[in-house]
Design a protein that fits this description.
This protein has 362 residues and is an alpha/beta fold. It is built from 15 helices and five strands. It has a five-stranded parallel beta sheet with strand order 2-1-3-4-5, sandwiched between helices. Helix 13 (271-283) links the parallel strand 4 and strand 5. The longest helix is centred in the middle third of the chain and has 20 residues, at 150-169. The radius of gyration is 21 Å and the shape is globular.
Length: 362
């Protein structure tokens, strides 16, 4: 029996400081640029100010990309555009600087951390700092068996919590969260369908690697069968993650919840991180206040999860590659919002105004 109850996070997580947010809004009204002229950048700056508890907002100086890696047994059903058990290749591409997220991280000068929670490969193939946390090798086929034991799910959640603590303790002030998985969108869709009470066909997408119609039908059937197994355990988030999740998804859920405890903001990427966030919301309803939706990936399950959490994506560029890429693309917007909120001058001695001819453009 597990000693971890995810519902306990509800008592540990507080919302970003509302008083600080009001102060940030009042300061915004005093700026020379009229209110509303910067669109969502104003909202972003105020959100970050509340998360930091600081007016004016501080610059995002130590962001970090954190990627949880794992292979999913359901990929053996040919529901992914990549071969089952090949997530190690995705990890290696990031390590060698040849993946989209690695290119963007290099451009933005943001370090990348990879955590192997459940890759299905020989640990000797990858650096020790990547594989040393592995919970298990691969996961069960969720259409016919549990992805993990409850004990393994607890270990994975605690792993994510520990990684969040390490990042917060090291001074990380914002995390770009993503996954490196093969088959991961199938359990993600299952979790979202279970928590939103929808059918498999409503949430099943084409995945980051893209699949044809036949593979989509196989994936839809896998989600349908996994849903039957998920519904009886909806009352226990840890058991739900063990039944139809995976080590990487359980670790991401623990990471998200502990990040909220530590008041460390997180930018979500695609459907996998959205699914983990939805599980986290089920455990602690205030937790989503610490998260941003970086992008809309086109996966129907992601859109449903973000709508349930009232998270409005910052970008919609059609990026389906995953790996934190879309979320990392949103980071410059967050940084820009912080810079504008902190550095734009206030109007000397003037009352707040809605419009100013000097700044109004057609």
């Amino acid at each position: 029996m597990s000693s971890l109850n995810l519902d306990d996070f509800s008592d540990l997580i507080e919302r970003p400081d509302s008083g600080t947010r009001r102060d940030a809004e009042e300061r915004r009204e005093r700026l020379a640029v009229p209110s509303g002229a910067l669109g969502r950048l104003d909202e972003l700056g105020e959100w970050l100010s509340a998360a930091q508890g600081s007016v004016p907002v501080k610059a995002v100086r130590q962001p970090r990309v954190v990627l949880f890696a794992g292979d999913h047994g359901v990929a053996a059903l040919d529901v992914s555009g990549r071969p089952a058990g090949s997530a190690e290749a995705l990890v290696r591409a990031v390590l060698e600087g040849e993946s989209p997220v690695a290119v963007l991280a290099r451009l933005a000068e943001v370090p990348v951390r990879i955590v192997d929670a459940g890759l299905d490969c020989d640990p000797a193939l990858l650096p020790d700092e990547v594989v040393r946390h592995r919970v298990r090798r691969g996961s069960g086929r969720i259409d016919i068996e549990d992805a993990l034991t409850v004990e393994e799910a607890e270990r994975a959640v605690r792993l994510g919590m520990a990684i969040a603590d390490e990042e917060a303790d090291s001074g990380t002030d914002l995390v770009v969260l993503g996954d490196l998985s093969v088959g991961g969108t199938t359990p993600a869709a299952t979790l979202i369908a279970a928590l939103c009470g929808t059918d498999a066909s409503v949430v099943t997408g084409r995945g980051g690697a893209g699949i044809d119609d036949l593979a989509w039908m196989r994936k839809c059937a896998a989600v349908r069968d996994a849903l039957r197994r998920a519904r009886p355990v909806l009352g226990d988030q840890l058991e739900l993650l063990a039944t139809v999740g995976g080590a990487d998804l359980a670790a991401m859920t623990g990471f998200l919840l502990q990040s909220a405890v530590r008041r460390m903001p997180v930018i979500l990427d695609g459907v996998v991180s959205a699914a983990c966030a939805l599980v986290g919301q089920r455990a602690a309803f205030r937790a989503p206040d610490w998260w941003l939706a970086g992008q809309l990936s086109g996966e129907p399950a992601q859109a449903k999860a973000l709508d349930r959490m009232a998270l409005n994506p910052l970008l919609d560029q059609g990026v389906t590659v995953g790996e934190g890429t879309g979320a990392l693309l949103a980071l410059p917007l967050v940084r820009a919002a912080a810079a504008l909120a902190a550095e734009l001058p206030e109007r000397a001695g003037a009352e707040p105004v809605e419009n100013s001819a000097e700044y109004v453009t057609e």
